[in-house]
Hints:
The chain has a domain of 86 residues. By secondary structure, the chain is an all-alpha fold. It is 75% helix and 2% strand. Strands 1-3-2 form a three-stranded antiparallel sheet, with no helix packed on it.
Amino acid sequence: MTRSLIFGSLAGIASAVLMLTTASGPLSFVLSYLVALPLFFAGLTHGVTAVGIAGAVGTLVSAVNGLLIAGIYLITFAAPVTLVVRQALLARPATEASAGADVSDGLEWYPVGRLMLWLIGWSLGLFGIALLLTADREGGLPGMLKEPLLQFLKAISQDQAKGEDHLVGVAGDLTKLIPAAFVISWLVMMTINGTLAQGMAMLLKQTRRPTPLYRSFTLSRSLAVALVAALVAAAVLPGDVAFIGGTVAAVLAFPFFLQGLAVVHGLAARASLPGLVLAAFYAVLVVAGALVGILVVILGFIEEWAGFRRRFAGAGASQEKN
């Protein structure tokens, strides 16, 4: 308990300092992406008590900039990291482990795909809260975002000939994309920080659970159904419902992007030079951007029914027997 208290307190202070310095200079963007790292590291090395203490201390330290900042820190970092770490450290005897389960030393660990579902649920919950808090404003959440975005576009616009009406239209379109972009950015940030923390813990031989194989990342078909429903709502329903459906669809597409990457990793593992295959793939992903990203999402979606990784594994086993 003493070690958890000390380490958790230090981790919470470090996290809060990163939070408080995010607007202090050119490195603010990088610092903002590392706020959750000390929290994850505390939990994955010292357990749930440590990450709980870290979150509480971080929230208290963040309060020096006001209760609003402390509240934002609590709901966007401290609470979700504590929840994810708690789930990540769950394990049970692997007596009846299912195919593809994360098994190590006779224990079946909580699936990494379900950890992502917790983050998805949390992020959509925050989106729902934002919708409720802005419901009495004209235009709702997009309306609240539109005016400051319009002022920003006016400030940076180089072409004044198109007039304000054009900028108003652009601002209106962008405000419908900002919530999804923000949520996906948060999911990416949490994924990166959790992965980095686990890697650091493994390097220091302090981890409390084995690192899961990324290519074993799996989701559920119910999530695929939810994605289809959100896409339909965005396509055929009017107004705010379409906006909500589009945002939810974009968020739900993220885990399928990860599952698509897991399929790619599974396929690359069968190659003679898997590292080279993955390097080439990620180079194409960076260069082509959204186009390849969408294809990866589609691949991850199809994987729910096609089971490419099971087929890869079966083909590999057959080749070994032959």
